[in-house]
Specification:
With about 270 residues, the chain is of the alpha+beta class. The protein has six helices and 16 strands. The protein is globular and about 50 Å long. One of its GO terms (molecular function) is metal ion binding. It comes from Pacificimonas flava. This is Taurine dioxygenase.
Length: about 270
Amino acid sequence: MSYETLTAEPLTPTIGAVVQGVDLTQPLSNAQVEDLHGALAEHQVIFFRDQQLDPVSLKRVGQHFGALQRHALKGLPDHPEVRKLHADETSKHVAGEEWHTDMSCAEKPPMGSILYLHTLPKLGGDTVFASMYAAYDALSDRMKDYLEGLTATHDGRLAFGRFDPKGDYPIATHPVIRAHPVTGRKVIYVNPGFTSHINELSKQESDAILRFLFQHCANEYFQVRFRWEPHSVAFWDNRCTWHLAVWDYFPQLRSGYRVQIEDGDVPKAA
């Protein structure tokens, strides 16, 4: 795909591209927003370098793509739509340290998320993204047929309970195979971070199928690994990707901000 206002250099044949020619610190034109929508649809996650943002400018970037959705965990006092992501020598857990799709426990999970990191460890702290398009396409036809029509429960307590055991977290049911609302492509829509069980199966069968899917979707051939630099940005399509924040830098500091963008619809079966 060609773009009028930017370039997008793929990082792998399957997923991920670095975008150049866009200054996210400034308001975006309609043409830039349209090109970024196209790049996101094509590459599933797009990356930017040398973008010195703050909570206000990060919110402005996100609002070009839709209303901002508040996270289940608290945001900043002055900017509740912005979540601070910070890990240091006092951290017992970090956000996203296992494979997940953001807030799939919500009735309407976010369309996408934008993460800006200003402070990085000397080495480590990468984020890995996996394509659920590629994961679905690699299934056998018989397995695709078997999974069609099944639904799964996504429970926020699985991901967030370790941060606040007394929190009131959303629970939602979504199709195991969903259709992407923009591209129409089918994706696997379960993830280790939030998915507790498949509703139409016994616990034994559900555990076995989810174990297979989680292992299958984490295949290295479906992935891109992003090495952060200070003032980098990642913008991922939450409807067709997993991601994992690699916590290999303890006790060093890694810090930044994140917003997530509302989706207009609940996930629909393929």
